[in-house]
Design a protein that fits this description.
The complex is a heterodimer. By secondary structure, chain A is of the alpha+beta class. In chain A, about 15% of the residues lie in helices and about 40% in strands. Chain A is elongated. In chain A, a hairpin with a 6-residue loop joins β3 and β4. Chain A contains five helices and 17 strands. Chain B is an alpha+beta fold. Chain B has helices spanning about 50, 165-170, 180-195, 225-230, 260-270, 345-370, 390-400; strands at about 5-10, 35-40, 40, 45-50, 60-65, 70-80, 85-95, 100, 115-125, 135-145, 200, 210-215, 220, 240, 250, 255, 275-280, 290, 325-330, 335, 340-345, 390, 405, 410, 420-425. Chain B is elongated and about 90 Å long. Chain B has seven helices and 25 strands. The chains are: A alpha+beta, B alpha+beta. Chains A and B meet through β2, β3, β4, α2 and β13 of A and β8, β12 and β14 of B. β17 (about 275) of chain A pairs parallel with β8 of chain B.
Chain lengths: ~280, ~425
């Protein structure tokens, strides 16, 4: 791959001269796309999301269509990396490896300083055009990638606007686990259950918030027939485990908060009934 | 009085998959019911053909003796389909014991081929040997048979979100019904992906719609939930059009690249118990004439939205595009299965292939009539051009085209295939 990508490991290892102290975004990330001047000709037509458990990342994809022309489209993907900027940079490095078509290296440029986009930004074009078709950048612990099949999108202006918005958000050096939340309401004391047994957690609001679980020693499940009711099922391994609950405070936010429930899984008594 | 069967467990040993059914779940977030039979309510059971071969596979039948009888019964079951009948066994109900269970062996099971089987068991009892059998209960049980233990993305750790999902087995097993080998099952899945979803290759930039990747690791992430909703459930969002306003316009969510095709083939095959892995080959190089998924004859895969006339160029044409990388599935790290493209065949080659196939059938039939005939596998008709079950060198010779270097010597650009790891994302 191009030399540009070789800059990334330097930034991850912290030996790059331009590297700033890593700060994490610590506020709801809600893109109000209608307020972006670069998108005034576009309207948001679709969005979906995915959650990656390891490393914990939450990504949303936004699709736009041009207001006057059905033949122009734009896709923006934004990924919030809970573990920090290094993970976002690793995903940035991985992105070009998902294209089967080789990136035209003569069009690839580091435009971080020039266009004032992100902490590290790269653009390239698949077309014979001066304007890039792809822009990918990392700002703090957020990865953003934009792709347009047509020339009528100002991707650099858009990247600059997104950066300005992200720069306005609160930051912190580390994330603090929420002490009092839904899990602590469900179980104020550290629960103990036997292997293979069930621990009821409670109901969750899935409309205004988004919830994800990463659990050790078992799994968090939804009650069949009631998609709001959650419970934990222990595996066959006794020990100390954690249920980690990641959630957004608003359905349209990318920012995740986390709470943790510690629990003990104990060896099981004998099976009821007598074997013949 | 007649005995009361309160429950039957097929997955009665969550740690052993040799003598018990597999750990499964309905979907990523919803568990299956255990016991599988509980006073009339039923759920599915899944068995691995390979792991149960030659083993004493048992079920666990629970009897309710809450009335405190002290009696001996004989029990048997007729029918059962692939599970087979259950030979008579004795149950001694004791006055002080309210509940007891017994593990009869599935001696007559027929675990031979992948499939979804829904068969009826009729259970009988009698109070003493020699008396007439009386009907006890009757129920239908759904059993899925898979070749081996689903591995890689799937796990048999009890209570894990990636225990095999029965809603997917319910979809895939009827399609792979009858497959007895890993190659057969994987080829059926390859046809499913290549032919039935109306997918089209991304002839613009070869991008994935369903994958994420971390550089420096082997971890790739597939958004299977989106795939399932958009492609299998046939409800892709229609707002976004690939190559909008051009002759190539198509629903963007049905546009795929090699990661999508190989990832799906991997996901499907491993669920059926195939030892499959995804391999990435980078660089890959120039193509011979192929049919990329949903596309026509092509050796210039990135011909763009406006230039379909340039999809198939002369082999020595300057400036034709190539695959910077490619992914496909290997079984047992050996033979290749490529769901992204098919090989193009000229008419003479097609005729030759058909003749070859007819000759194989001829020798198969002739062998059956010989007195000393040994059983010979039936020739499998692979539609012409399917890139299934090919050695690495055979695969490369069919799809890769060498280009002359500066000295005029034809060379391949291909790299060494390396396995990558696929993980599922959360909905």
């Amino acid at each position: 791959m191009h030399d540009l990508w070789n800059e990334i490991p330097i930034r991850i290892s912290g030996s790059g001269d331009e590297l700033q102290p890593e700060l994490l975004i610590n506020e709801d990330i809600v893109f109000d796309w209608s307020s972006f001047a670069s998108l005034k000709e576009f309207s948001l037509s679709y969005r979906d999301h995915i959650f990656i458990e390891d490393p914990v990342c939450y990504s949303k994809r936004y699709d736009f269509t041009h207001k006057d022309s059905t033949s122009s489209g734009l896709t923006i993907k934004a990924m919030f990396c809970y573990a920090g900027q290094s993970v976002a940079l690793e995903f940035l490095q991985g992105e070009p490896n998902l294209f089967q078509r080789a990136i035209p290296l003569d069009t690839a440029r580091n435009i971080t300083e020039e266009a004032q986009i992100g902490n590290f930004a790269v653009s390239w074009s698949w077309r014979e055009s001066t304007s890039p078709s792809n822009l990918i950048f990392v700002y703090r612990n957020l990865l953003v990638s934009c792709y347009s099949q047509q020339d009528n999108v100002n991707l650099l202006g858009l990247g600059n606007e997104i950066t300005t918005y992200l720069a306005s958000l609160d930051t912190s050096e580390a994330y603090v686990t929420v002490e009092e939340g839904w899990l602590s309401n469900c179980h104020s004391d550290r629960p103990s259950i036997q292997v293979a047994e069930r621990l009821d957690l409670g109901e969750l609001d899935n409309d205004d918030q988004t919830h994800f679980f990463v659990s050790g020693g078992g799994s968090v499940n939804i009650e069949a027939g009631n998609s709001k009711l959650y419970y934990y099922r222990a595996s066959l391994e006794p020990g100390d485990f954690q249920i980690k609950h990641y959630y957004t405070q608003r359905a349209d936010s990318l920012f995740l908060k986390r709470e943790i429930l510690d629990l003990d899984i104990l060896d099981k008594d004998n099976q009821p009934g007598e074997k013949q | 009085m007649k005995p009361i069967i309160s429950a039957i467990y097929f997955n009665h040993n969550k740690s052993s998959k040799k003598t018990s059914a597999l750990n499964i779940r309905a979907s990523k977030q919803v568990e299956s019911h255990l016991p599988e039979y509980l006073k009339g309510s039923r759920s599915e059971a899944v068995y691995s053909i390979e792991q149960t071969r030659g083993q004493d596979v048992t079920i666990e039948v629970h009897f309710d003796n809450s009335q405190g009888d002290s009696k001996t019964y004989e029990i048997k079951a007729e029918g059962g389909g692939v599970l087979g009948k259950i030979d008579p066994f004795k149950v001694n109900l004791l006055r002080d014991i309210r509940s007891m269970y017994i593990n009869p062996v599935l001696k007559h099971r027929k675990f031979e081929a992948v499939g979804k089987y829904r068969d009826k068991w009729t259970w009988f009892y009698r109070e003493a040997s020699g008396t007439a059998w009386k009907p006890l209960i009757e129920f239908e049980q759904t059993v899925f048979l898979v070749l081996g233990i689903p591995d890689q993305i799937w796990t048999q750790l009890f209570a894990h979100n990636n225990n095999p999902w029965t809603f997917m087995l319910d979809y895939l097993c009827p399609i792979a019904q009858g497959a007895k080998t890993q190659a057969e099952a994987t080829t059926k899945m390859l046809h499913l992906i290549y032919e039935t979803y109306d997918l089209k290759y991304d002839i613009d930039i070869g991008n994935s719609r369903y994958f994420w990747y971390i550089q420096g690791t082997v971890d790739h992430y597939i958004s299977f939930d989106n795939w399932f909703n958009y492609i299998i459930n046939k409800s892709p969002p229609t707002h976004k059009q690939f190559c909008a306003g051009t002759p190539e316009q198509y629903n963007d969510f049905k546009i795929v690249n090699c990661y999508d095709c190989a990832g799906l083939l991997f996901l499907y095959s491993t669920l059926l118990g195939v030892d499959a892995k995804v391999f990435k080959q980078e660089p890959f190089g120039y193509l011979k004439y192929v049919y990329p998924i949903g596309r026509g004859k092509c050796n210039n895969p990135f011909y763009g939205c406006l230039y379909s006339a340039y999809a198939a160029l002369k082999m020595d044409e300057y400036g034709r595009s190539k695959f910077a990388l490619h992914t496909y599935v290997k079984i047992s790290e050996k033979n290749n299965f490529d769901a992204t493209m098919m090989e193009w065949f000229s008419l003479p080659r097609m005729a030759l292939y058909t003749l070859q196939f007819m000759r194989e059938w001829g020798s198969y039939i002739a062998a059956r009539f010989r007195p000393d005939a040994k059983p010979k596998p039936k020739p499998i008709f692979a539609p012409i051009g399917v890139l299934a079950n090919l050695s690495q060198s055979e695969y490369e010779s069919r799809v890769l085209h060498p280009k002359p270097n500066s000295s005029g010597v034809p060379v391949y650009e291909k790299g060494t295939p390396r396995s990558i790891f696929i993980k599922n994302t959360h909905p």
